[in-house]
Amino acid sequence: MTKSEEQRAKNGPIICADKLTRAFGKTVALQELDLRIEPGEIFGLVGPDGAGKTTALRLMAAVMRPTLGRVRVSGFDSVKQAESIRPHVGYMPQRFSLYPDLNVLENLCFYADIFSVNDGERQKRIEQLLAFANLTHFTDRRAGQLSGGMQKKLALACTLIHRPDVLLLDEPTTGVDPVSRREFWDILTDLHISGTTIVVSTPYMDEAERCNRVGLLFKGTLIECGTPASVKAKIQGQVIELRPEPMARAQEALAHQPDVLEVQVYGDLLHVLVDDAYQRMPQLKAALEAAGVQVNRLRVIQPRMEEAFISLIHRLQQ
Amino acid sequence: MAANDFAIHTDNLTKRFGNFYAVDGVTFNVRRGSIFGFLGPNGAGKTTTMRVLLGLLAPTSGRAVVLGYDVARRPRAVKKRIGYMSQRFSLYDDLTVGENLRFYGRTYGLDNDRLRQRIQFVLEMADLVGRDRQHARELSGGWRQRLALGAAILHEPELVFLDEPTAGVDPVSRRAFWELLYRLANGGTTIFVTTHYMDEAEHCQELAFIHAGKIVAQGAPDLIKTTLMKGQVLEISPDQPAEAMRLLKVARAEGRLKVDDVALYGAQAHIVAPDVGRVMETIAHLLQAGGVEPGQMDVISPSLEDVFLSCIR
User: Fold this and answer.
1) Taking the CB of the first residue and of the last residue of chain B, which one, N or C, has fewer CB atoms within 10 A?
2) Predicted ipTM?
């Protein structure tokens, strides 16, 4: 471990949520969230729209008060010591309000003003951030004229101006193209290497794989928390992947087979979730043959994050 | 196959705005009854290509034939036979489910009997039977999507264009939505999807990656992953992931490690190189010199994102 990694580990979790709850009228957006986020980790809050991700981040950023329970960030309570939290946290909301008529530089200066980043350090800091976000040659461009990916990078730069220890990013790459998304994650990796704690919410399952740990949120409840590997291991069963011809007939033949938990199409591939792949293989092959289906490829694969998530939701609903 | 056997056929399709080639010599075919995905950044030419195919923009040069019609010469003929579901759903929140469908049906020129029949079909398909009096704004993500899809297919189009259809929707609803798309495709409807979403791209039967106006990779997702990757992906599980990344990045910046890419994935690092066998030892040495145990090293299958990035590097 690096020295700072050691030091940080000694100080305990950087974010502690205890029975953190938020209701809006009759709707409970977040239900008794118990969560510990370790310093320096990249933590992913994964879940669909309406799961409670934005609410959780707003509560941690101390821009919203809980209905019940509490959350502490860097040791400060989000209600009683909200002002003390702000210097430690960089919060990037989902629809980040950059000023579209201000150019890149003006936006950064504006945020530097808000966070009282003093004049001596300011120039250097802004230059650093421009380089970091690959925006050095775009200082005159109006924020409204930047591409989606560049807007997100600028928004991130504005969030970093005061060197926060903790970044709370609400769906920072939603709607962004694959290249920009990848560049964004390169920036997050550099921040991670330098010790920043990052909590990122995402509806993208493949992004969840890039986090140290993930928390799966569904309808306001944390249904699972752990490393991506441990979450995927929670699927009770194995996935057999095959390329059948014709697909629709293969799907039908297998969907009602005993011990087949789930069948899912991915383009020209079929994923079959069974309890034990090697035990069920002969049975499935027989069913496919009987239905006149030709199988061009067959193998046992690791389940994806999406499959783990759906499997966990199904179990909840049973 | 002749151009007419495809739902969409483009041949060196080009669209220029002044000096800017938004679409630059794009050639691809979409088989009838298939699900075709168009993947790429905004500004890459995805939206412009779609507009040309929808009959909204004339090509500068090259050809696009949609459902047998040359879009440059017969744009109106194309429009009648296609459906379009936009990203922002274009549902009227103040109207009910039924009112939305009747509005769209009438706009597509469906008369009373056929309209009623088709509305019933759509309600059943979208699992919205009995909810036609509900206001569209009361529907959650997954249901809105299904309604929007339903509105796009009221007139039984042979080809449907979907723009980012499942952004932000939960995995269960997304799955149900794709089941719908598969059923439509099995029934002969061709489906053209644009997406940023790699997970979604996996559901398509065929994909085209577009970047800076050109197609950089094309084929079935599985085939793309196994044949179009430039280089290999090495996954290592070091005992100190962040420190390992730092060492690898510094070595790369200083020219001591010649690889195409280094990225962190949770507690693993992914290294892309033309021949990973050659760099494995270098990696092990430089990590150990920095006090990090490299851990297990495996060549892994590339993801679609890995392939896409390798194609444009």
Assistant:
1) N
2) 0.75
